[in-house]
Amino acid sequence: MANTAQARKRARQAVARNKHNASIRSMLRTAIKRVRQAVEAGDKTAANEVFRKATSIIDRVADKNIIHKNKAARHKSRLSSAVKALA
User: What is the mean pLDDT of the segment spanning 14-41?
Assistant: First the structure.
């Protein structure tokens, strides 16, 4: 357990930050799943629309350093190639 006031505050901040980051990470995973579901359904227009929204979410999460920029690029690349394969 934290002994100093500073350490106690840091522990409180870490809990709050963890909860906030977890919700953002969940939003990211949901966006990726929606694109994959649209691709599996074979709906090209829906897949393009959901992919556009997912790209925005992926970029936002990477800008906040919740995921690494390379991981964001990898997700976008794989989703993009899956959407393009529907043609």
Answer: 97
